[in-house]
Structures are given as structure tokens and as C-alpha cells.
Predict the 3D structure of the following.
Amino acid sequence: MTNNLKYFIGNWKMFGDFSSLKIINNVKFHINKTKSKKSRIVFCVPSTLIRHFSSKLKNSNIIIGAQNCHFSDDYGPYTGSINSKMIKRAGAKYVILGHSENRIQKLHNGDTDFLINKKIKSAIKNNLNVIFCIGETFKERKKNLTNKILSGQINKGLHSVKNLNKVIIAYEPVWSIGTGMIPKHNELNKTILFIRRKLSKSFKNKNSVKIIYGGSVNSKNIHKLVAIKGINGFLIGGASQSAKNFIDIIKNCYK
Ligand code: PEP
């Protein structure tokens, strides 16, 4: 496991155009000034921006990722879709898969665990790093089903996935995304530990899996989140769309 290295992964969702590169350039400038910090910065941007941003940021310390991909390795009759080979060739090094905004619970035709598993395998085959999102809904949490839900998502999503060192698990409670709410310290501690134990029991090679947290991360709550044992970084949605907010999170993380 990478001990001190912290991931700060921005998920831009449906945001940004070519001019938004200035946001990332500002972050880059800040990171260069504070080189000593051990952080890995990834921006998962809309597909339209991957090629442009990745070529502009070549040889920099910022990595570009994608937000989803199709499960098929080959070209095919899938209107509007892009597969892992295509995003890789466009310059992405990471891809977010299983995000709750793309899962079946949110979208009528959304991703099932089975599809997510196929996507993960295809992405790894094409040498992409996978940010695999898991998380329970508010209702499931209320019914005390969090561990059961996470366990099922891990079992199905990572079923016969061999190269676990290409996988980062992003624990994103669905009720926390975009709401300003985060889990209580104890609760999050327990859940991260549960995920780590679950990986230990179910997979060989599990020590290489990083676990990050996502859901309403901001510069005010980061000090609480970073205190959780075993967290390797953060997946940051809304706050990654502003250089100031993103930089403040990083700054406050190392305070
Ligand atoms: C996300 O969508 O992955 C996310 C973490 O969003 P937010 O930070 O806005 O809650």
C-alpha cells in the first residue's frame, strides 16, 4: 500500500470547456510551489476535454482521467458510447466506474454491478487505473444495510478482477454526494475498516488496493476526513470545479 501518498481526484461531472484548463493550471501552479507534499492529482473531465487537457498537461504533475466508459473492448453499434481503448488513446490514465450517478438506482438504463464488472475488466485490460465507486443510499444506511451493500458491490464489481493494484476503491455514500453531509467520524472509521477487511478476506493482493472517500469533501471538513485511519485520498466533485476550493482542500489536508 502507498502509505503517505494522498490522492485528490476531481470529478468534474458535466462541467467545463476548453477555457476551464485555467482551473487546472492554477492547481498545477500551487502544487509546484509546494512540491514537498506527497499528493497525486487527477482531474476526471468530460470526454470532450480529455485529449486537449492531457496534451496541454503532458510532463506536468496533473493527470487526466475519464468519468465512464463502455464495457465493450471493440468498436460496436453503441451510439453515443466511448470504450476504454478510446479514452486511453485520447490521453486518460484513470477512469471513474460505478459512480452512483451512473448506476441503475439513479438511471432507468444505468449500470448494473454486472456491467460495472465488465467495464472494470475492460479498463484494466487497456491499462487504465480504475476509480471504482461504491456506496449505500440513505434508505439502506437507515436500515443498517451499509456493510451488506458495500460487500455485494465489491464482490460483484471486482469478480475475477486480477490486477487489483490498478483499482482504487472510492467509498461514496450516495446520501453524501452533493448534499453537504458527511458520515460521522466513528461511522466512517468503521466503514473504511470494513472495506479493508473485506478486501483482505476476499482477495489476494489486497494490500495494493487504495481506498479513498468521496461525498461533499470541502476545505472545512477535510481536517476531519483526513483523520480517518486508512484513507488514501479523496474523490472531490463540486469543489473540484474551482481552483481555489480544490487548492484549499489540499492545503487544509496537510495542515
Ligand atoms: C462525486 O460526485 O463523486 C462527489 C464526490 O461529489 P461532491 O463532492 O460534489 O459531493
